[in-house]
Amino acid sequence: MRIEVDTDKCVGGGHCVLAASQVFDQRDEDGVVVVLDSSPRAELHDAVREAAILCPATAIRVIE
After folding, report:
1. CA distance linking residue 38 with residue 6, whole number of Å
2. Pick from 44, 59, 43, 54: which is nearest to 18 by CA?
3. d(CA 64, CA 45)
4. Do 25 and 15 touch, CB atoms closer than 8 A?
5. Using CA atoms, how far apart are residues 47 and 16, in angstroms rounded to an integer?
6. Handedness of CA 46, 4, 13, 30 (dihedral sign)
7. 33 with 10: CB under 8 angstroms?
8. Would you kindly state where each structural domain of the chain is located, as residue ranges?
9. pTM (two decimals)
10. Which of 12, 51, 58, 59 can bridge 20 by disulfide, Cβ–Cβ 3.0-4.6 Å?
């Protein structure tokens, strides 16, 4: 699994951080998503997929 994000689309909702805090964070100044691990270990894959689904701006892309 690989993760890509479109920071221009991100609205800072924070759903990704709530779903997968080991993989995503937010910038302090504007709340835009930050990927902490672009190739997370297998046990985090379900949480990453959930984060992508929950993203209100569809800014997260999961590549299997």
Report:
1. 13
2. 54
3. 9
4. no
5. 9
6. positive
7. yes
8. 2-63
9. 0.94
10. 51
